[in-house]
Specification:
Strand content: 5-15%
Number of helices: 7
Number of domains: 1
Largest sheet: 4 strands, mixed
Strand order of the largest sheet: 3-2-1-4
Order of helices and strands: HEHEHEHHEHH
């Protein structure tokens, strides 16, 4: 079994085992899902949607996240281990993004998280497990919001002088 297949299998099994009936869906996204050359990958981006978040279960999953990175010689993102949220919070944050006009300076962490989560839901993914119908609902909703933001940002950029982009720093988590 190839390294990627092992990681996918372990991820799916661990998500189901740790979160059980609270798991709505989970998947791997980001560079790990897109890359053909796994030697260039630093970490594994994981998205997990739950009915409710149990802190003990989340900590158990975090320990496994760190363990799998050590096991496969990857460097985990120690600040943001994975994207884990409940359905209510995801829906609430996507509504915030939906109601907010795109901006270059993000001041609210909820809006920043909404952008990250919407992007994850729209991106390439592997190792999916869970309720695919619910996933497609959130993916479609996120895609609609992301497409609107892209359009509005491009329109905004057309009206700005190029010096703006050289002088401004975007929000970093």
């Amino acid at each position: 079994m190839k390294k990627q297949d092992k990681i996918i299998s372990e991820f799916q099994q661990k998500a189901i085992h740790v979160f059980g009936h609270d798991l709505i869906f989970a998947f791997i996204f980001g560079s790990y899902a897109r890359s053909k050359n796994l030697r260039k990958i630093n970490d594994i981006d994981m998205f997990i949607l739950l009915n409710r978040i149990d802190p003990q279960k989340a900590n158990r999953f975090k320990r496994w996240y760190l363990e799998i990175h050590r096991k496969y010689n990857l460097i985990p993102d120690r600040k943001y281990f994975y994207e884990i949220m409940n359905e209510k919070k995801l829906d609430e944050y996507l509504k915030i993004m939906e109601k907010t006009r795109p901006q270059f300076h993000i001041k609210k962490i909820s809006l920043f998280d909404a952008i990250i989560w919407a992007n994850a839901l729209c991106s390439d993914y592997i190792a999916f497990t869970g309720n695919y119908k619910k996933f497609l609902f959130f993916r479609k909703k996120s895609k609609k919001i992301v497409d609107l933001w892209i359009y509005q940002l491009l329109e905004k950029m057309k009206k700005m002088p190029s010096i703006f982009f050289k002088q401004n720093v975007f929000y970093h988590r």
